[in-house]
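User: Can you fold this complex?
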Amino acid sequence: MRIEVAYLRPGLDSRGRKLGAETLDVYLTENVFGLTSELASLVFADPVVQRAVTDGSGPLVAPKADWNLLIEVSFKAGVTNPMALTAREALANALRLPGNHLPESAVVQTATQWLFSRDDLSLGANQALAASLHNPLIQQAVVLTRADWDSGKRPPALYPLVHLGEVSAVVTIPMTQLEGDALVQLSKTRLLALTQPEMEAIRNHYRDPATQAARRELQLPSEPVDLELEMLAQTWSEHCKHKIFAANIAYTDTTTGKTEAISSLYSTYIKQTTRDLEPKRTFLRSVFHDNAGVVQFDDDTLVCFKVETHNSPSALDPFGGAITGIVGVNRDILGTGKGAKPIFNTNYLCFGDPNTPADELPTGLLHPKTVLRGVHQGIIEGGNHSGIPTVAGGFLFDESYKGKPLVFCGTGGILPASVNGEASYLKHVDAGDLVVMLGGRVGKDGIHGATFSSLALDETSPTSAVQIGDPITQRKMTDFLLEARDLGLYKGITDNGAGGLSSSLGEMAESSGGVRIDLDLCPLKYQGLAPWEILVSESQERMSLAVDRSTLEAFLALARKRDVEGTVIGEFTATGRVDLTWGRQLIGSLSMEFLHKGLPAMNLKATWVPPKFTPREVPDLPLGSTLLRLLADPTVASKESLVRQYDHEVQARSVVKPFCGEKMDGPTEGAVLKLKPGSNRGLTVTHGVNPRYGDTDPYQMAWNAVDEAYRAHIALGGDPDNASVLDNFCWPDPVQSATTPDGEYKLAQLVKTCQGLRDACLFYGLPLISGKDSMKNDANMNGKKVSIRPTLLISLMGIIVDVNKAMTTDFLAAGDVIVLLGDTRAELAGSTLEKVLRSDDSALRLAGTPTVHPEASLKLYRALASALQSGLLASVHDLADGGLGVALAESSLGGRLGAHVTLDELPGLRSAPPAVGLFSESPGRFLASVNPTQLADFRKAFRGLPAAEIGVVTADASLVVDREGQTVVRLAQQELLHAWNTLGRLQ
Amino acid sequence: MSTVTAGILTGFGINADQELGQAFELAGARVVWLPVSTLLEEPSRLDQLQILGFPGGFSFGDHLGSGRVLAQWVKNALQDSLTGFTERGGLVLGVCNGFQTLVKMGILPNLKGDWTPETTLIGNEGGVFQDRWIRVRANPANTSPWLRGLGDFDLPIRHGEGRFQVRDDQVRKTLHEKNLIALTYHGGNPNGALDDIAGLTDATGHIFGLMPHPEAFTHRLQHPLWRRRADLGTLGLKVFANGVDHWK
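Assistant: Here's the predicted assembly.
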């Protein structure tokens, strides 16, 4: 049956309005027995404003009689369609079927029909319109003109279904006799993403007489079978094993001429940093080995935090990539310890310039605006539909992200300190426990996700790597799991992300010492998957659990009751092997030892040659109009139009929201959350990221990123001695090769960034509790390579002792004294001013990398933290992108007040051009305001520190900046607002 | 009666259930969180409740229209039990997705007494989900216990489908004449709702549904202007206190 649902009157359809179209919801069913037109109408139409027809007359009854073009968009076969899943449940309920489930033979599809009235009905125009309504990777569009319709053409009664051939049996892959190129070729054709040395290690393992003997005993072929190779490739992928961070690196610094051997960047700079901090940071509970870092919040409560990236999928399908990223990192939290509840999302999104002319884009790449729209929608639905507030984050626009966007998805979680009498961060997987797969079913979606993301994007990137997350299925699973956790119904849990079952069970089996996976028992979305596909599929919304036999029945019964599918698919063992079976027969087996420790370390070279720029002095600039240009830069501009679409308040914890100020549109430094009713202790969430500083000095880039996140934490009122950070590295390929001739330099940038990260975290006492890296952020399209700027995102989660002392950036009252805290130096390399000026002259470089002066900064931060505890300040804004000028504008706009300041006595700065004072990005600074009644106390608190009273908050709603008695900037609030709201006008 | 028990529905994509329950607890109620699947199996659970809360969220993903599938499930299984519950004087509160569910079931405003849907909530005029604080005004002529002592106050809205619509002019007229309109947006209509309608009650006043989130304003730090204003007006908590006090 084809059911078309139309509005009764024009003007009700908000989806079509923007495009001047009218839309209809279409449902297509087959083998749904007992379904009548009447019942369909009851289920699918809102009787107050809609009607449903089942005779194909939808376009004729829709309130758009003059339509001349019909475009119907539907999902391709096999793509996750949560709406169709809900439609099935609704139909089953209406038909009173037991368990509200339709039989497997029933088909339910959905589509959206768009009706347009257009002047230009040329083929080209119609195709362009259709292209703007769907992503051909996952959707299909049927285009019919009114003339087609009148000649009897109609959209199909049913769209094609997944039809796979017979299940291909297990294939043996002869490789013990292969050498060199043949091994590389095998890796390529099977999309294993393994290098020659890695393929050789596998070959040698199978050649090994011990392996041969073991396989004979197990009655397995002596050559590897496909599912063994696939499991090795997933487990050994860059995505899962972080091979570059684990590599042996010979690092040469040409400025000193010295070469040092670094054995694993991860162990040397990240893990060791936290180990060094452990004695004085006693709040650490579980770091590095679980899905997320866990710290103590108060006596009864732990919190955890994880940030992931989902860049490659978002480049192909921005919506699907982003939503999958969100629900994926939510699952990391759900799988942390005994299972934590997600309480906030925070996302940092990096795109190419949304104003990039289309002809400047290499073919094959989606336009940054298209990527922005899709990713943004994915973030909206991923968070909002899951009931997890998106509390912080940011947007960064830079031309280097037009090849691959960076989609950093972060989630924080909460768990009681103990569950059923045991510390909640512990989990157990013992031999004899049953393997339970929970949540969604397995399909072809996301096969090779882990290996694909370990490669550069090119024209042949596999579409099967795309998945679409389904927040509702996951929400049901989340509610169920937290209930089951508190009842003690399972022992161990982890999420299924990259690499699917092969990764999750491979990891869990490390605790017990082995696992048997019965692949034929895994519930499938549709028949016809090969065993290896089931093993590595990345179909979403799945968790893997270890369940004790004694609680299995109760676990599965509760799952059924909560409409969550749980299936026993094997058993944890102590055999030292991963055994793979089909129909009770062993079809593959890998030694745990080889799987987890057989990967040879990479040996890489890194060479640091300082970049040679000839920086220019700051040119003579019209300061007012330049400030407006900075405010209009998409990275600086107001994100309100985008962020208002995120639910940032669900769960009712927000104390500092994404916006503050009189009109609730001023930016904040991050989030403050009041975690528990009856307690004033809270959490802060902030970020720091400065990829452009890395152009001249990656070491300082890392220092700045850490400093920015910490500075924001301090500005919010956070405790200087209680914060933890996460590192997320996104890099272009740093391995020297024919396609990456500058690999040694990019790897040296990585080394220097790691060194800066370590030094900054050790100095400020910020333990690294979790992190992730994504190392192949390049796109090769038509021979043109676009690589991202090396990017380090720091995400901070800290404690604020009393949320009543939380601070915001908005000026509160006319007459308050404006103060600048921290030294200003002429530091404009990589600044927003430089970026804006480079859009006129791409060769231009300004001097002075913003450089952290840690001793001075920490002294100031401690003074500020204690002044905030004493309530001495009315507003605090940290200085970051765009320096003092932008902060002044933002604090004024937030308060809808004016400001009158002078640049004459900025701490640390003598006789520099006014543009330096206004736009320098020296870190370690804040713009604050003080009520005159507290000025004496303020002066006392900051005696001996770099603090200057530079002006006063005014009631006349304009921004006035003087220097040496001359007014150098005079801007009305309306001018500032207009520039700052650029993104809101982006079409 | 000394103990007032509020049941809060959970599951199937409902997601603002924790804070809805906490708001009732702050107002002095005993709270039980009740999975929808449990209530459908055991409708007699209603006998132990004085108040039933339909929280916000995205039940069934709002996939066939906000609140529609949950409304269908509840109506099919519980029409008689819920009618009995309200006839015994039980109070019902629906917030956001809960409000959408109540109107789509037809239990609100229930002009004919047989749960025929007369009103609905559709996609915002602006076409997108919005999270922002707005001002609402309680209808002084509506005598529902939920509204006692409420005038103008601030609450957040967080929805993509809050545009109130009616079947026809007769329904609209009846809503006004019988004073079933409970809340209106004041100083700006955020979603294109007919007559600025933000919330409704049934004729008994016992069933109250609203798009804004009173449970998200139970203490002053939740208001976005808490650092700028000494007086933030009435808290959303008052709604819950009204529901609980009605039973005391």
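Chain B has a mean pLDDT of 96. The CA atoms of residues 75 and 94 of chain B lie 15 Å apart.
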